[in-house]
Prior knowledge:
Blueprint: E1 13-18, H1 23-28, H2 33-38, H3 51-61, E2 63-69, E3 71-73, E4 76-79, H4 81-90, E5 95-98, H5 106-120, E6 125-127, H6 129-132, H7 142-151, E7 155-158, H8 173-183, E8 189-192, H9 199-208, E9 212-215, H10 226-233, E10 240-241, H11 251-258, H12 265-280
Parallel strand pairs: 1-2, 2-5, 6-7, 7-8, 8-9, 9-10
Antiparallel strand pairs: 3-4
Helix pairs in contact: 3-11, 5-7
Amino acid sequence: METDIVSSEKVRLIDVWAQPPLKQFMDRMPEIHRLVKLSGSSAILPGGVPIPELIDQMNESGTDLVLLSAWCRPEGWVIDNDEIAQICRDFPGKFKGLATVNLSKPLEAVRELERAVKEHGFVGLRIVPWLWNLPPNDRLYFPLFVKCIELGIPFCTQVGHTGPLMPSETGRPIPYIDEIALLFPELKIVCGHLGYPWTDEMIAVAWKHENVFIDTSAYKPNVYPRQILDFMKGFGRKKVMFGTNYPQLNHVECAKQLSKLDLPKVSLSYFAHKNAERVFGLSLSQQ
């Protein structure tokens, strides 16, 4: 029955927020080292983790598909779209790419996004506002939003405070996500990291706007806020997606905790993979 609470059985998962745990990513993103250590993942820092080890975690946890993000910062590329595309080719069926761009160069950014989607089959755009110190209602994002709508892909971003020691203002759901959802009602917006400590605001914005969604990346299931779990049991069933922010969080540990959540089975299935399939245009039946 739809009202049954989930048991310890393994569920199929799509992880909508991860980055390749390669040494170059760790070296070029010093801001995240503190976050990784606080999460108990500091063993990955010296040399990164080979992709086959990530796949072993995916197989053990029942994670069918991981969306891997490219990263760019004002100082230059951390890991570019072509590098993500190569990982997707090397391990077919395990990964899909999320593009990123150099936000400071609007024309180049739009062309790069279109190239990543049309040439490499990427399924979304991700920009992390705190890296640029620009909230998503800044005009530099607007051409990208139009291109996302044209390409039929979501815009993925970070909401809430920053785990790294950087200003958190750019992560406020209100006014920033609310404003861009009003200006671009056809734009699908996936807001990562729950919006904490503005979780209630994030839920309100997702409730208000048809095309605004939440992902739970960077938070282990055993610490999901109660209001998120309550939202997922009702109207928010089709609004929330699973994410890890790998390598911050481990897929095996997250999967074990997911099976213990006080959620109806139907809510868990939407959260675990169905919402991601719909919003990103994916199909686990083809994996």
